[in-house]
Specification:
By secondary structure, this protein is α+β, with helices and mostly antiparallel strands. The chain has a domain of about 200 residues: Sortase, Chain: A. The protein has 6 helices and 8 strands, in the order αααββαββββββαα. It has an 8-stranded mixed barrel with strand order 1-2-3-4-7-8-6-5. A hairpin with a 7-residue loop joins β7 and β8. α2 packs across α3. The protein is elongated. It starts with about 25 loop residues before the first helix and ends in a 6-residue tail after the last helix.
């Protein structure tokens, strides 16, 4: 007799269990936002770019920009001198206020190897391009006291060696009214006596820069020089002493730089976030190859605005 084996019955499913669910797709947040290490990397990239940009802007790149601005300013000054249109007052030939940054004179001090184009205005932005003429004072060579401001160290530091001038040394300033010669009568720092008042019709030039450690001046250095010879006629001066904006005075800062600073800063932030995202998708090497030039350019733009918020004689 043959016995037929009955196959075992399938096991009944355990109550309360369910088939395993497939893994959930990554959320939109994880796809679009960098994780914590990448966010930290983006923040460090912003800080590094800002510090590097500011150091380069005030230092070597600023010096190269100063040389470029000197050459372009000198070419413009030569042209206006040849055409007889160089401003000799606060108004141009059309009766409008002279635009800030317009080349108005050439300062030459052979003892210091200094040859600088003087521009109208003394804001931080103007002084980043070279020394500037304080607008509420006469032009060099005219009757009264003319004032020129220049940076001590940043953007080439054109006035950084003024402390080496000595009493009796002479130098020249070329304007739209000719070449004027000045003789140094003294250097002043905080607490030093002020030179005697000018006689009627006489002219004086005061060169002003920062005094103290480089990039961190604690006071002012002033060089007083009297005009040799007769003063030339003065141009129109609707802007009187005391009406000059604070940004154009010695150690002044430009509050107007806040708006472009915020806009460029936002661009730098977005670029750093994009770098972090690219890092997670392309890899570190590819992300840095693309991102470093962009971050550097934006950092230099931000540094330009930060420099305008620093004292204008740094």
């Amino acid at each position: 007799m043959t016995v037929t084996e009955t196959p075992p019955a399938p096991a009944a499913p355990t109550r309360g269990t369910a088939p395993a669910a497939p893994p959930a797709p990554p959320s939109g947040r994880s796809r679009l936002l960098p994780d914590r290490p990448q966010a930290i990397g983006a923040g460090l990239a912003i800080v590094a770019a800002l510090v590097l940009g500011l150091l380069l802007d005030l230092g070597p790149l600023g010096g190269l920009r100063h040389l470029r601005d000197h050459e372009t300013g000198y070419a413009e000054l030569r042209l206006t001198l040849a055409m007889g249109t160089t401003p000799v007052g606060q108004l141009d030939k059309d009766g409008r206020a002279v635009r800030l940054g317009t080349p108005v004179a050439l300062l030459e001090i052979p003892q210091l190897g200094l040859r600088e184009v003087i521009r109208e205005g003394t804001t931080g932005g103007v002084l980043a391009r070279g020394p500037g003429h304080r607008r509420d004072t006469p032009m060099p060579g005219q009757a009264g006291t003319s004032v020129l401001l220049g940076r001590q160290a940043g953007f080439g530091g054109p006035f950084g060696a003024l402390g080496n001038l000595r009493n009796g040394e002479t130098f020249t300033v070329s304007t739209g009214q000719g070449v004027q010669t000045f003789r140094v009568i003294g250097l002043r720092r905080a607490g030093d006596p002020v030179p005697p008042a000018l006689k009627a019709g006489a002219g004086r030039l005061v060169l002003v820069t920062g005094q103290g450690p480089r990039y961190a001046p604690s006071g002012l250095l002033l060089v007083d020089a009297d005009l040799v010879g007769e003063a030339v006629p003065a141009g129109a001066r609707p802007l009187r002493t005391g009406a000059l904006p604070a940004a154009e005075k010695a150690m002044g800062i430009e509050d107007a730089a806040w708006v472009p600073l915020v806009l460029w800063g936002e661009g730098l932030l977005l670029a750093a976030l994009a770098l972090a995202l690219a890092w997670s998708r392309w890899g570190r090497r590819q992300a840095w190859i693309v991102g470093v030039p962009v971050l550097t350019a934006l950092a230099l733009a931000v540094a330009d605005q930060v420099a305008r918020l620093l004292p204008n004689l740094i």
